[in-house]
Amino acid sequence: MQKALDTGFVRDQFPAFKEPSLQGQAFFENAGGSYTCKPVLDRLFRFYHSRKVQPYAPYEASRLGGAEMDEARERLALMMGVDTDELSFGPSTTQNTYVLAQAFRQHLNPGDAIIVTNQDHEANTGPWRRLAEEGFELREWQMDPQTGHLDTADLEKLLDSKVKLVCFPHCSNVVGEINDVAAICKVVRENGAYSCVDGVSYAPHGFVNVDEIGADIYLFSAYKTYGPHQGIMVIRRALGMELPNQGHYFNAPCLYKRFTPAGPDHAQVAACSGMADYVDQLYAHHFDGTADAAGRARAVHGLMRGAETELMQPLLEYLGQKNSVRLLGPTQATGRAPTIAVELEGNAEAAAAALAPLGIMAGGGDFYAVRALQAQGIDPEKGVLRLSFVHYTSKAEIDKLITALDQTL
């Protein structure tokens, strides 16, 4: 086994790093969407050129197109430790969550309670909060206003027999702390409620085994995990078949179609197999021996996190020493994802604009986490500067970022 991530090999799998127009640019807005790996692009190109017909018909192009869509679902489900039909695709995680909220609205009784957090991206809190207008009780699990931490003890105080669903993030897109999903799901399950985990900000740092963490619903976005612009949702069968069907009535018996009211983007679904190709490439390059799909995903997950943690700690220490910035979330890399937000004395968008001529691609704003910023005493209009990276980021790019920050902050 190779103990460290081979960054050169990794970057060779991403055409963006060879694109002339991007030379000299260091990408630090990965939390908004990652670069796309070559296996995904290859599959997308092939589908649009050779399979762009209605799938699942008996003629060859159609048969192959349908087979590629099925392959994507099968391979991702195997990586995540769930059955094939427990994984479905949608146009975005926001849309998937909205469809889920409508299913729960029909399933629950007025007076039932749903718990949300103020640490979330709006996509995993807004659709649920709207159910208060339908007579459901919404309870807010609040994070610590200084640290951004979600304390499980505070959740336990909110739980009672009225609570039917708890929605929370695996990792906040501005706080960065990795929540203990397995422990939280266990508490939720023991109290007779379901768990809905927003994995959008965590999944780019490694595919999780949903069976092991115990989530009833797990959502993430393929365009942030090196793939096409699709939302991916895992819903365990018992819950998925219990909730009212949101798709065409004749698709009700098929679990992966129950929460897909519109037809999926066939080419992008098929191209999602490229994410599994990429994980397998990393495994084959770095590890000896064989493993099943879940084992390969687990090993690559650890490889990614190891590389990210090593790069992250010097940046956290640098930011923590600057009096002109407030670092949100944990100061230790082992407890967080490399999604690093800082409050500045001035406007965050202006700071991002100042970094751009220095070859730093970063963003400033509220990042759809208005409630999370307000809970930490930050004016969303001023926003935060977000510096987010993933395993393909190099040490040279981190050094370039720190030099640029020295010149602008």
Describe, in plain words, how this protein is organized in 3D.
By secondary structure, the protein is α/β, with parallel strands linked by helices. It has 15 helices and 13 strands. The protein has helices at 7-12, 38-51, 60-79, 93-107, 126-129, 152-158, 181-190, 210-213, 237-242, 266-271, 273-286, 293-320, 348-355, 370-375, 395-408, and strands at 26-27, 87-90, 113-117, 137-141, 163-169, 194-198, 217-221, 231-235, 325-327, 339-344, 360-361, 363-365, 384-388. The radius of gyration is 21 Å and the shape is globular.
Main sheet record: 7 strands, mixed
Side by side, the strands of the main sheet go: 2-8-7-6-5-3-4
Total strands: the figure is: 13
As a percent range, the share of helical residues equals 25-40%
What would you call the structural class? alpha/beta
| Parts with pLDDT < 50 across at least 5 consecutive residues | none
Radius of gyration: 21 Å
Mean pLDDT: 97
Q: How far from one another are the termini? A: 41 Å
